[in-house]
Amino acid sequence: MSFHKIKGHQNQLKYLSRLKESGLIPHALLFTGQQGIGKRLIADIFAASVFCKEKDSPCGKCHSCVQMKAGSYPDFLVLERDDKGKIPVGASDKSQQGSVRWMIDRLTRSSINGRYVVIVDGVETISESGQNALLKTVEEPGSDSHIILIAESKSGILPTIVSRCIEINFNPLSVSDINDIVEERFPDGENSSMISSICGGSADVALRLYDDKIFAGIIAAAKEIKGILRGRGTAGKAFDFSGTAGPAFVITVLINLYSFMVRSHITGEVVMYPDDIALDEGEAEKAVKILLAIKKGLKNNLNVNSILKGMLYSVSEINSRGFPDPDFSWLL
Questions:
Q1: DSSP 196
Q2: Which helix or strand (DSSP H or E) is residue 266 part of?
Q3: What are the angstrom distances between the C-alpha of 197 and each of 109, 172, 217, 269?
Q4: Residues 6+ apart with CB under 8 A from 141
Q5: Structural domain boundaries of the chain?
Q6: CA distances from 212 to 36, 208, 209, 247, 296 (A)
Q7: Are 257 and 263 in contact (CB under 8 A)?
Q8: Cβ–Cβ < 8 Å for 173, 36
Q9: Predicted local confidence at residue 124, as pLDDT
Q10: At what angle do helices 63-70 and 39-51 cross, to 10 degrees?
């Protein structure tokens, strides 16, 4: 796959193409932006273009491209989250493949084909000690080594690492780009207008919402939330997140849904959601505040089901002092 087939991010792709053509690729790049908008895909393609010797790289056909596609190119290193959601640091006395110390050790050795390219997907999940270990390599990875760090936000990354990188920020995809992506996968998919509007510009979220069970779970939760806000709900099985891709995903989509409702009230945009989940502007704003507060607390292993019920039942007491005030300017 080449940059030509990527949806969205045209300015970022042009910049990366100019870097490649100039031969002046920085030793460290930092890709930031929300999850599921194509940062990793673009990083993979850029890495392949560095190794490919053809004029229109990556060509997808040469030996290097074939190895990259198979995941067997010897000088291409990838660090990803483990089953705990973090990139491991690794012990100094043994080589744990995919860990920070493993990568550092590999870069001290000569590459087979002349240069290394490293992708660290989720750098913000590395512990502070691990990031400190990574810092020296980011500063001086070697004359023919390039490191691409990927993160949703640079807020979880040591400032000393950020300052040594060229940052490229990726914005959420447009509704039209999302429509093009999902139409290729689900040409006859239902609820396409609503899904494209509430996925938050994430192709990954949009594609997951085409799972009927997940989509039905989101709608059931939204119906229950409306019922509670209007004094009719019971907060029963609708908040059982076990069959809906997990609470973090559901909370994110519901935030997108109610943010979309706020925007539609402000702009008069045509509403794409069913009446039985629709909220007025004030209700939607309160729902967003509740869900943002819950999302912020997910890392503390709170009981989402219980907390969500409690906050919804106490909605009449909610004001801007008790919850974070969301910035809706990005919706306009």
A1: H
A2: helix 247-267
A3: 48, 12, 17, 11
A4: 27, 28, 107, 116, 118, 147
A5: 3-169, 211-331
A6: 19, 9, 7, 17, 28
A7: no
A8: no
A9: 94
A10: 150
* Rounded CA separation 83/114 (Å): 33
For Cα atoms 150, 154, 159, give the angle at the middle one, nearest 5 degrees: 115
What separation in angstroms does the CA of 114 have from each of 142, 144, 315?
11, 7, 61
The predicted structure's pLDDT at residue 77: 96
pTM: 0.81
Task: Report CA-CA distances (Å) from 182 to 92, 135, 179, 192, 212.
Answer: 44, 39, 5, 8, 14
Residues sharing a CB contact under 8 Å with residue 223, sequence separation 6 or more, in sequence order: 238, 276, 277
Inter-CA distances, 236 with 15, 246, 275, 322, Å: 50, 17, 21, 25
Residues in the chain: 332
Fold topology of 3-169:
Rossmann fold (3.40.50)
User: Within 13 Å and on the Cβ side, how many CA atoms surround 192?
Assistant: 16
Average pLDDT value over all residues in the chain: 84
Token pair in block for residue 293: 């507060």
Pull the structure tokens for residue 11.
């300015």
